[in-house]
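re: ur msg from earlier - yeah i can do the alpha-D-ribofuranose complex, just paste it... oh wait u already did. ok heres what im feeding in:
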Amino acid sequence: MPSIVVVGSVNLDLVATVDRLPTPGETVTGADLNRFPGGKGANQALAAKRLGADVTLVACVGDDAAADEALALLREEGVELGMCQRIAGARSGTALIAVAASGENHIVVAPGANRALTPELLRLPEADALICQLETPIETIVRAAAEFTGWFVVNLAPAMHVDVSVLQRADLVVVNESEAAWYGDSLRACSGMIATTFGAAGAVLSKRGEDLARTKPPRIEAVDTTAAGDTFTAALTVALAEGQEPEEALKFACAAGAAAATKLGAQPSLPTRDDVIRLLADGGG
Ligand code: RIB
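and the outut:
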């Protein structure tokens, strides 16, 4: 069982399901509203846990009721939360999400307490691998990249400027198609592996411009793609940390991401290892 530390965000997701997403300036009505635990960091932590890793989450939440709601599944399922700090007077991170019948979404995040995860508050336990994303201050990611001695993974989401030292340090960088386009040539600074996802078209794992593996996910009926990328990131990290070969690891990660798209909500949709194995067996890959 690999040990994984996730440095990242915790949000409460307020999710409106609608027939179609509004265009700018348009109002659409008739939505159903739900609340789910979310946040890229928290989703990746729980996904890794459900896939069999031993996981510690380093994060900040507010001192409000939303914090308990956002942490509920992580706590219930045994993610180590001793390094998750409550920030007095802060609101917990909140994401406003609209999900269309096609499974596509729009997400707006109000980071709240996630902004408080500064380098001064960062404490890193020993672990085989560390995963971070970009919903917490970039300086903290820079510090984590410099201090952590194990396998370092960065999911460059949401796309924003990141210090080149992070790209140079990363053993694995994960981007989706639009993030890959946003970063463009700056990804050439990466000396480790880059995993690029293309939704239903699959994913590519490469290193210094050379493909290591390519795969397509099993065919699924997409209900909500929220957290599919988080699940892919966690699954690829777990698989590679276990010593799986690139091809096998990428196939596992694509199937895990696809499984997460079959259910509504971020954390309720994260698959277990058995779910992924079943999907690979039933749906090809
Ligand atoms: O990646 C999905 C996540 O992005 C959601 O759970 C939401 O909280 C936003 O952070």
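cool cool. The chain has one domain: 3-10+39-89+115-281. ping me if u need the other ligands too
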